[in-house]
Prior knowledge:
Glycerol uptake facilitator protein; mainly alpha; globular
Amino acid sequence: MNDVNFFPPKDVAGKVCEAGVGKCKLPILKMFILAILAGVYIAFGAQLFLLVGSDSTLGFGFTRFLSASVFTVGLMMVVVGGAELFTGNNLVLIAALDKKVTWGELLKNWVVVYIGNFVGSIILAAFLFWGGTWSLNGNLVGANALKVALSKTSLTFAQAFFRGILCNWLVCMAVWMAMASKDVIGKLFAIYFPIMAFVASGFEHSVANMFFIPYGIFLKGNPKVLEVTGKTLADLANLNWGTLFTVNLIPVTLGNLVGGAIFVGAVYWYVYLLSKK
């Protein structure tokens, strides 16, 4: 096993635990700055998703595949560039279960990183709105952004919750497999396939939605975008700051926690680390 280009799962569990300790011990300001960066990076990927998805002539399946493929650049920048992402940090639960960090340190990391991710996502949504990139392809990029945001604030609690579970199950597997790789190319491939799968499948990622929904809220008052969508402000009544949290972020975040922290983190801790005690 020493000659292969990846670490075996048992070793990865130890590396994830060690990384979790490092994340929890970061000074709050550095943690917050890195979290802002992660929000920006994921939003960059989300913007590419909207851009590619605005070309409806490609057909549903191929459009989903291509738009999901370009979205993966977000997590690639987070993992290789270095940033603090709430959904990936759900794996830090391993360090708490292994008693390497306290539950208070774990909660602090999750809260600070979640808020930082939100700030970063809003920053990029505002920059893109002011930059007018929504007008590309005859305002179809903006129309697609509005459509995506509206769909995310029209889910039932159960739909958002279970899509959140499925999403972060795949996201944390992407992070897990990236940590298994010993080189950058391997990390990129490890990230690409699970992330492409969750995006193409329509699962829900809390941090991505911190960009998608606010960007849609910014755009819903734009007459040029509304004209392309054929919708009125009354049709978009469900797209607002309240539904961002109550309809989407609350159930999706809970689902992300279950999918990432429990179904990946806790399960692998039980299998690979608990037996060592």
